[in-house]
Amino acid sequence: MTTLANTSQSGQSQPQSSQAAPFLQQVGAQIKAELLLTSRRGENILVTLILPVILLIFFASLKIIPVTSGSVINFLLPGILALAIMASGMVHLGISTAYERYYGVLKRLGATPLPRSGLIMAKIVAVLLLEVVQVILLGGIAFLFYGWHPTGSPALAILVLALGTITFAALGLAMAGSLRAETTLAVANGLYLLFLLIGGGILPLDHLPAPLAILAQYLPAAAFTQSLQAALSAGAPFPGAALLTLLIWMLLILVVAIRAFRWE
Amino acid sequence: MMSAHAQTAGQIAGAAASPERAEAAIVVDRLCKSYNGRRVVDELSFSVRRGEVFALLGPNGAGKTTTVETLEGYRRPDSGSVRVLGLDPIRDAARLKPLIGVMLQQDGLYPALRPREVLQLFASYYRQPQPIDQLLERVGIDPGTRTSCRRLSGGQKRRLALALALVGNPQLLFLDEPTAGMDPQARLATWEIIRELKAQGVTILLTTHLMDEAERLADRVAIIDHGRLIALDTPDRLTGVANATIVRFVAPAGLDCRALAALPAVQRAEEVRPGSYLLEAEPQSMPAVLADLTAWLRDQGITLTELRVGHGSLEDLFLRLTGAEMRE
């Protein structure tokens, strides 16, 4: 029958070539593409690298930060690092994923052999690599120009950075997967500004009006910032309350992100 | 029209019963899907043979895309079942994805990447992808272009989307309105690619608004409306060329229809619009009708400008079956 003829014909012209590439090769290619995309979009570089550097230099140079104890840079660097991580996860990852959803890229990828887990893995690795650049850049500037020296607990700092990354990346993805792209853009930038003002990274929380300070205390930004400040200070007490707050936020946001995310 | 229905029912029953079913690339069996209580796909059944080009034709909202997206694994059937290359599109997704190529209605291109970069990325999902520069040239996109996808024209985006569907050497292609937004030249080039793929044995399921696309490319056409199958057959049989009872022709207005009706093989003659005529006859006397008609016109010294045997175009048939206008 013609069916058989066609089958054998296709067998000749296309010998078993329809096979998925090995998983890690797919993820590797996707990581490369994610990094290329990050570098292509100027606004990503602006919000994740240039803006934190400007904030660090501006506030470290003007000496207007009302710090009660310790040096300005020891207070400022963890706060700016926390803001940079929020920019990578919430602002950059959130907005770019929202637009990939809007343009149907996420849906189209769903018809390829790349598993969803592979796509998410690639996005996480790309964000982590971006964060390494942020840490080196901001830490380097603080070290070279403002006399900062690494102190505190590196292990705790890495743990806090990891928790913060998961929290804010999940927050970005939760918005990207459930809101319209324009809404995600607006909300992510709005939250970033809010966290900059009441996250305790630039202005110490005890300089805010008391009710606002109490509210800010329970938000993920302050919890993240305070944990990181403690982790990067010699002899600071273990930031139990802040770390617990961050952990609760992380779990909450992860659940929401997983439940609310729509690929199309 | 009656014959189209009868053949439809016969073919579905035949496909379900015969051993050919195991060989089918796609089997859709009493598929139902509702959104917000509205039935979008309603007891739809058909099967696509391996190596076949099969067109789904229907107006907007007829359920074409929902059906295709169920086959691609994006939607879960409310009831009924689908099999694609013998697999369940959702449960066996990991095994099925490498075997299929997909062109969605939305191109889904990364706006910031260049065509070659997107194709390179998609190629890396497969063990043995097609050579990407050749593939880009085949769809008419310059591999060296530094233009980002954002700035491509609608037709260029569509052609790049076709290249993305082909890069993994699929056995089965889903093309959802593949030539939408293309200029006529690009459309012809795309049709040529589809014919080449068919010659290589690739099975193709395409949806289209374009009657001539379905007529020229498809081995069989399924017409669906309100989520139901209303006709399924080869384009020739659907348009009635194989079983013609009608001749349409265009000639100067005001010909003598009584004289035309008096021709031996002609049963009825009518001038449906000024200059547009319709003759009815028995299918077996069709050759005689044509000979009589042209002889009569010669005797009158009249030249006709168009002549069509059969029900007319697929478009005419479509209008009669659905009562709906096809929209681009």
Care to describe what's here?
The complex is a heterodimer of chains A (264) and B (328). Chain A has one domain (22-260). Helices cover 76% and strands 0% of the residues of chain A. Chain A has helices at 2-13, 23-40, 42-62, 72-102, 105-109, 116-146, 154-176, 181-198, 210-217, 220-231, 240-260. In chain A, helix 4 runs antiparallel to helix 8 (181-198) and helix 7 (154-176) runs parallel beside helix 11 (240-260). The two termini of chain A are 41 Å apart. By secondary structure, chain B is an alpha/beta fold. Chain B has two domains: 2-239, Rossmann fold (3-Layer(aba) Sandwich), CATH 3.40.50.300; 246-309, 2-Layer Sandwich (Alpha-Beta Plaits), CATH 3.30.70. In chain B, the strands form three sheets. In chain B, strands 5-6-7-3-8-9 form a six-stranded mixed beta sheet, with helices on both faces. The longest helix of chain B has 16 residues, at 2-17. Residues 1-21 of chain B have low confidence and may be disordered. Classes of the chains: A mainly alpha (264), B alpha/beta (328).
Entry summary:
The complex is a heterodimer of chains A (264) and B (328). Chain A has 264 residues and is mostly helical.
